[in-house]
Design brief:
Blueprint lengths: L4 H16 L1 H4 L9 H4 L3 H13 L4 H5 L2 H5 L6 E2 L5 H6 L10 H23 L8 H26 L20 H18 L14 H14 L3 H13 L23 E5 L21 H5 L10 E2 L1 H6 L12 H5 E2 L22 E2 L19 E5 H14 L3 H14 L11 H16 L5 H8 L5 H8 L20 H6 L10
Antiparallel strand pairs: 1-3, 2-6, 4-5
Length: about 500
């Protein structure tokens, strides 16, 4: 839009008047809640913690962009989005360090950190609340801060570690991956001590002791601290609180949310209240189904690789196809929201679309308001990580029964015989791909496996995902820190290679 000289003159006049009447314009709303007025009651504390959970529903956390940074940057998926910058983001090509998905993930995770820091600082000052509830709510805040920092550290590496309520002028030291994970574990230790083992009623879905132990194990796994991780998984497994549900598909539908296999999941709702998120009356639906939905149903900005489809090669005891395949991906042999590939105009029978977390069982459409809860940590994930930890500790035979529990649920013939440690490592990567494909864990698996550490490992991945032609060891495993933050805080250093 062009601005003429008269417009400029008018703007100058307005600015002049604004400066003269600054006191008139800068009035404090007497009805605006303040920190001094808010932290008074147990209800205030509960509202604050609910707000910290609410950040998990934002586009930059588990509603939208997280899946592009994990599923699609891994070898499981790719993007053919017409938004070229988005497709390039999943191909390790990011010229703009303020690119929206990357910056929004950063901002929304730090929004969650900011909220938890307020709780941790202010909740202890409330003297009128039940002591046991104070302990629990503080433990929930520490768990949530740990989860936000686990994701920030895993995605961006050397992020600032903000542990106090920040202001416009405050600056926090930039941590290292090692020191940041150490803080995650410190928060989780507090969470483990203060969280209950389970909830009832409206509190179901909040973080539990098992969730804290599981996230501790995942954090230790990313540092390849196998023995310490195994100890945490042993706590979860021996607690008796979790089990594999009978039907695999029950982990990805609205009808069986918060089931016994769920260690921690994000609560979403498809009840339309408004278009905005994180606002009064805003929607609590997630956007993944819209962005990953098949063409004509959703945007199809993310699709699975063909190798993942063929990875479901194990047969059931009756000689059938692994049932997890058709839960994970749509293929040409099955209906797509009630219509065939041909009826939908899909010309390539080899093309695939994600089915996991889609609403095709209950709808003929997708939108920005999917109500399916995202299962962040499942018991199957715990069993397979425990198997991985034990294998890395030289206890390869002990890994087999854990893997067979997961295979048995799918009706797959159990593993038998002996495996070398190297063979078992490959087997576990396979088991995790077919059990957890499209659940945001594969990029972390590749990082932990060491395949991203050197060119030889990356070359292996390139055989099934050509996007890794752009992967640079020592650089591409981490996203760049946003340019905006680097400009504000001159003390921040960019990640290596960016």
């Amino acid at each position: 839009m062009k601005i003429n000289k008269l417009t400029v003159a008018a703007l100058a006049g307005i600015l002049s008047l604004s400066s003269c009447e600054k006191d008139l314009l800068e009035k404090v709303n007497p009805n605006q809640p303040s920190t001094q007025d808010f932290w008074k009651t147990q209800d205030d504390a509960m509202k604050a913690v609910t707000s910290a959970y609410g950040t998990l529903q934002l586009p930059g956390t588990y509603s939208r962009w997280y899946w592009f940074a994990t599923d699609l940057r891994s070898d499981e998926g790719y993007s053919a989005s017409p938004w070229t910058d988005l497709a390039n983001f999943t191909r390790f090509l990011q010229l703009d360090y303020n690119f929206e998905p990357s910056e929004v993930m950063w901002t929304d995770h730090y929004r969650g950190v900011y909220r938890t820091n307020q709780i941790i600082a202010n909740l202890p000052t409330i003297t009128t609340m039940d002591a046991a509830m104070r302990t629990r709510l503080l433990a929930e805040a520490h768990f949530l801060r740990a989860l936000y920092y686990f994701n920030l550290t895993s995605l961006y590496g050397n992020v600032p570690m903000i542990l106090e309520v920040s202001t416009a002028t405050s600056r926090a030291p930039q941590g290292t991956i090692e020191s940041n994970y150490a803080q995650v574990l410190a928060d989780l230790a507090i969470a483990e001590a203060g969280l209950p083992t389970e909830y009832t009623g409206a509190d179901i879905g909040r973080a539990t002791k098992g969730a804290a132990q599981a996230l501790m194990g995942k954090t230790l796994m990313q540092q390849r601290k196998w023995a310490e991780a195994s100890a945490q998984f042993t706590k979860v497994i021996s607690s008796g609180k979790y089990r594999l549900v009978e039907n695999y598909v029950d982990n990805f539908t609205m009808t069986s949310e918060n089931n016994p296999e769920s260690v921690f999941e994000i609560q979403f709702s498809d009840a339309l209240q408004g278009d905005a998120q994180d606002a009064p009356g805003g929607s609590e639906g997630n956007n993944r189904a819209q962005f990953f939905g098949p063409r004509g149903i959703g945007w199809s900005d993310g699709q699975p690789r063909r190798w993942l489809f063929t990875e479901f090669s194990d047969l059931t005891a009756t000689g059938g196809v692994d049932p997890r395949r058709d839960v994970t991906v749509f293929n040409s042999a099955m209906p797509i929201y009630g219509r065939t590939y041909a009826q939908r105009g899909y010309n390539d029978p080899n093309e695939l679309f994600w089915r996991k977390y889609q609403n095709d069982r209950t709808r003929t459409f997708e939108d920005y308001h999917s109500g399916i809860n995202i299962r962040v940590i499942r018991y199957a994930d715990i069993l397979l990580m425990q198997a991985e930890a034990l294998n890395n500790l030289g206890q390869t035979a002990a890994a087999i029964p854990l893997i067979n529990q997961v295979r048995a649920r799918a009706g797959i013939v159990p593993l038998a015989g002996s495996f070398s440690q190297a063979q078992m490592k490959t087997q576990i990567l396979h088991e995790r791909a077919v059990e957890l494909g499209g659940e945001g864990v594969r990029f972390f698996d590749l990082t932990r496996s060491g395949l991203l550490d050197n060119q030889a490992g990356v070359d292996q991945i390139k055989t099934r995902d050509q996007d890794f032609l752009n992967f640079v060891p020592g650089k591409s495993a981490l996203l760049p820190l946003p340019r905006t933050d680097l400009d504000i805080d001159k003390g921040l250093k960019q990640n290596p290679g960016w």
